[in-house]
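Dear support,

I submitted the protein below through the web form. The confirmation email said the job was done, but the results page showed an empty box. After a refresh the structure appeared. I'm attaching both so you can tell me whether what I see now is the final result or a partial one.
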Amino acid sequence: MALALQPLQSRCSVAPASQVSVSHAEKQTMSVFDTLAERRYEEWLKKISADDYLPPVAKQDTAIRKSYEGYIFSEVVSHMEEAVQASTTAKREELLEKARQLEFQLVLLLEKRQMPLVAATLQSSLLTHRKRVLGGERE
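What the results page shows now:
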């Protein structure tokens, strides 16, 4: 109960390692896992309060994962761009049809995942891209 009445700042601050202590009675009732966790916490507090402590540097080579929807969107754009460079009308129509099918699949997937705003935004983006790439041609 006393914890709920304390101001948020005092509840969230990290106490220095020298001030962290657990009474002997509390240690006797703690489980093995609680004891290990307490020991690790005390070691961590000592480590970060040391004068020569430097926080670890964040890794810059973390992989960026693209969503399935992102892959489908990229494929639609790719098929539209390939259609512009197609050598024959039949190949062009085939690529445009594949782009339409993938766009339809993308919209259905987003609607199924209850993301209608994302679906509308991507459709608008694809329409703009289609007009830019295909020169305003009607598909």
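Response: this is the final, complete result; the empty box was a page-load delay. The CA atoms of residues 48 and 56 lie 11 Å apart.
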